[in-house]
Design goal:
The chain is mainly α and 99 residues long. It is built from four helices and no strands.
């Protein structure tokens, strides 16, 4: 039990190192992937759910990349971690869609 609590404490410390902005990207990626996969399923019939889920993850990645490019041209730093967190959220959203 002590090992499990130690792992949990290490995980919690790691999660708390990220700024709040990263969690916004994660939630946005989740929502974009889920909604895009759902819209693809509604508008095109006959494909497996995995196809729609992959399209959702791609849409989330493109949206995150587009947002970072806009930030770069506005004079802010290009942050690849934001894209990664958006993709992680996109994967979670795609998995939720497939449920």
């Amino acid at each position: 039990m002590k090992k499990i609590l130690k792992v949990w404490d290490n995980f919690a410390d790691w999660v708390c190192k990220f700024s709040g902005d990263k969690y916004v990207h994660l939630i946005a990626g989740l929502i974009i992937a889920f909604v895009f996969a759902w819209l693809m399923a509604v508008t095109t019939k006959g494909f497996p759910a995995i196809n729609y889920a992959v399209c959702g993850v791609i849409a989330a990645g493109v949206a995150m990349l587009f947002k970072e490019v806009i930030d770069f041209f506005r004079g802010e730093d290009f942050d690849g971690k934001d894209i990664v967190f958006g993709l992680i959220g996109g994967i979670i959203g795609a998995l939720l869609y497939m449920l």
